[in-house]
Design goal:
Blueprint lengths: L8 H19 L6 H8 L3 H8 L2 H28 L5 H12 L4 H10 L7 H14 L16 H27 L5 H20 L1
Length: 203
Amino acid sequence: MTGRKRLTPEESRSSALEAARALLIEAGPQAVTLKAVSARIGRTHANLLHHFGSAAGLQKALAEHLARTVCETIIEAVHASRAGLGSPREVVDLAFDAFDREGAGALASWMLLTGNEDALNPIIGTIHDLVDEIAPEEAGHVDQDGGEPRQVHRETLSLVLLAMGDALIGAALAKSLGLPREAARVRAAEQLAASLARYQRAG
């Protein structure tokens, strides 16, 4: 009889996060529990407790995992847009899909509602790193009156807030206002295109 493959700690953690991500997409944030994840990957509850400490720890790690994965993709898309190989809309769709289809918006909201006050920290931290990667010339500057215009930081703030809000109430709000479902994405793409144009003129 062949025994179960022994995974390294990193492989075990990665497998658990991928299972948690699948549960998040399939059934929503309330389904991301240590019990459900351990059952899906054939590991023990104690094994996941060792890696994540608690359900809240698992959810926090999942939020960070989602943010890191998406931000790496967005970095590539932004660089492609600057080189004329991609479009601002592609960048916007990546961000919006992360919060909507990938479940990051619902996960963050659920964590906050269930008392995990630092739920957004891993997402915010990863996005901060993303901006510093895209615009290293802005890193470390403080935007004050008469100071450095942190344009990429401003655009990232706008994009993330739009994506988060759209994931949570976008469909209902667009319907109520008589607008197409993708109206927020179109608006975000227009703003990002204008920002990229300014960046290229300044470069």
